[in-house]
Design a protein that fits this description.
Elements lengths: L7 H10 L4 H11 L5 H14 L5 H21 L8 H16 L17 H5 L6 E2 L2 E3 L5 E3 L6 E6 L2 E5 L4 E6 L8 E5 L4 E6 L5 E4 L4 E5 L8 E12 L8 E4 L4 E4 L3 E6 L6 E7 L2 E5 L2 E5 L3 E5 L4 E5 L2 H4 L6 E3 L5 H12 L2 E4 L12 E3 L4 H9 L5 E5 L2 E5 L1
Helix pairs in contact: 1-2, 1-3, 3-5, 4-5
Length: 391
């Protein structure tokens, strides 16, 4: 290699042009391990964006998505001994994402393991989930919201309950003196729904979940709801009336904030993740206050707090599967709830694998499974509503 061929700018240009040889790619990989070159690599990426007129908000979003997919692919394919050098993977994946979206070429190493025929996945395809839920009134009457007409559904205890044209449940209190009635909003596998509560708070309910509350949303000066499954909350500020979310293992108390609670029975712990504001998680005598970007994990024996990637937690609300650094079997439980399928594992599938990448939940099941299969980690076979997973 000529002397200038060891220069990071030269190698980056070769990547952008799609003319890099394997030797030049290897040289680029080696140079990106040097933290002192971060500023220069960033400048090169910015220049590539400017030259290709890409820095629009929607393009930044696309870059982030492609970056996540490439990062996951590199991380999965590299030997475990190399995974400890994680900043290297982040820098290279970011560069690769920008180059792809700028129209440049890209080559990266993958295992030479042949992919198995996945035509069977298409033959047994499953449509994605949809917006839908069941409202159960205090009288026991059930209203299937996908079948209900838009507009006023019912009035009870001085509260009018309506369904909007964009598929959302809205509560309006006309006469609080009439007391309150208990309602439950529930979703099946493959359903999700949003409810606008009488205090102005919004709640997005994930698949196989339920939210129980009284129509006035007031219990001795507190706003109280009970949750099973998973929900994302945007709580209206009201310092005089704390908002409390009760699950079987804990209570979460807020005054006004954005957070997500995952309390599925088939998950090992209740996970409370904060995006804005502050929340207090209480379980027996254990109490923890968490900050934005933190998650409280409650397994019933104690509460642990860790910093997390909130995009991995709230992906479902935005219509995505964000699988970066997600435990494989956790990811497959997300897939099972959304497509209403059963996952059956071969004994060869380990418990400590991670997935990677991003894909929309609007895709059919076959697209999601083929995307996960592209990592060469597992193989899927679909039979009706059952997905068989093997190595």
């Amino acid at each position: 290699m000529a002397e200038d061929e060891s220069d990071i700018a030269y190698l980056f240009k070769k990547l952008a042009d799609g003319t890099a040889s394997k030797e030049e790619l290897a040289a680029y990989f080696e140079l990106t391990k040097d933290n002192s070159l971060d500023a220069e690599i960033t400048a090169l990426m910015q220049a590539e964006l400017k030259d290709n007129a890409l820095p629009e908000p929607q393009d930044i979003e696309r870059i982030n998505r492609v970056y996540g997919n490439i990062e996951a692919a590199i991380r999965i394919q590299q030997p475990s001994s190399e995974k400890s050098n994680y900043p290297f993977f982040r820098r290279w994946a970011a560069a690769a994402a920008i180059l792809i979206l700028a129209g440049g070429g890209l080559l990266y190493y993958t295992q030479n393991k042949p992919s198995k025929d996945n035509s069977q996945l298409v033959a047994n395809d499953v449509a994605p989930g949809h917006q839908g839920a069941t409202l159960i009134l205090a009288s026991g009457k059930k209203i299937i919201l996908t079948q209900a007409v838009n507009g006023k559904l019912v009035k009870e205890a001085g509260v009018t309950i309506s369904k909007t044209a964009n598929g959302q449940l809205v509560y309006n209190v006309q006469d609080a003196s009439q007391g309150s009635k208990m309602n439950t909003l529930s979703t099946d596998n493959g359903e999700t729904y949003k409810v606008h509560l009488p205090d102005g708070s919004d709640v997005w309910l994930n698949s196989a979940s339920s939210l129980t509350y009284n129509t006035a949303l007031n219990d001795n000066g507190k706003r109280m709801v009970s949750l099973t499954g998973e929900a994302y909350f945007e709580i209206a500020k009201d310092k005089a009336h704390p908002f409390i979310v009760h699950t079987d293992k804990q209570d979460v108390e807020v005054l006004g904030t954005h957070f997500n609670i995952n309390s599925y029975k088939d998950e090992p712990a209740v996970a409370t993740t904060l995006l804005e504001g502050s929340v207090k998680v209480t379980s027996g005598t254990n109490k923890q206050v968490i900050k934005p970007g933190e998650q409280a994990i409650n397994n019933g024996a104690g509460i642990k707090v860790a910093t997390v990637d909130v995009d991995n937690i709230t992906d479902w609300k935005n219509g995505d599967f964000n699988l970066n650094h997600v435990d494989f079997k956790v990811a497959m439980r997300k897939v099972a709830r959304w497509y209403d399928v059963e996952i059956i594992y071969d004994k060869s599938v380990p418990d400590d694998m991670e997935t990677g990448g991003w894909i929309s939940r609007k895709q059919k099941l076959s697209a999601v499974l083929k995307f996960i299969e592209s990592s060469r980690l597992v193989h899927f076979k679909v039979e009706g509503k059952k997905i068989y997973v093997s190595k």
